[in-house]
Specification:
single chain
Length: 122
């Protein structure tokens, strides 16, 4: 649930704040749209798993963790690609987002490994 809500928060920030104030952050609009759509898809998947996977599943938790890591890698790649266009505030936002997502993914992977199939709650 936390993962899905976090993805919704990221999508909201990207779709409302960063798109409206693109010049303040420096990330080009097409890149922001890509991240926005991806964050929405991750939120839908995560929240759907939370609602419809009865007892939780290590495999779903691992999928969510790995998609979070992929999203973080894509975001990092965009930061590197557009580094000269990003403002200090933009760089700070994206680095913090990647740090939070990576931390969450690591916690999810550790939880999936440590708990039995019946104990995992998304």
């Amino acid at each position: 649930m936390i993962d899905g809500l976090g993805a919704l928060l990221s999508a909201s920030i990207l779709g409302i704040v960063l798109l409206r104030f693109e010049g303040v952050f420096g990330m080009p609009v097409p890149a922001i749209w890509f991240l926005f759509v991806t964050a929405c898809a991750l939120a839908i998947f995560s929240l759907t798993c939370c609602l419809f996977v009865q007892k939780g599943s290590r495999s779903y938790l691992r999928i969510i963790a790995f998609t979070n890591l992929e999203y973080g890698c894509i975001t990092t790649g965009l930061v590197l690609y557009y580094f000269t266009e990003l403002t200090g505030l933009g760089l700070l936002y994206f680095l913090l987002e990647v740090a939070v997502i990576a931390t969450l993914a690591i916690i999810e992977l550790k939880s999936a490994s440590a708990l039995s199939e019946e104990q995992v709650v998304l």
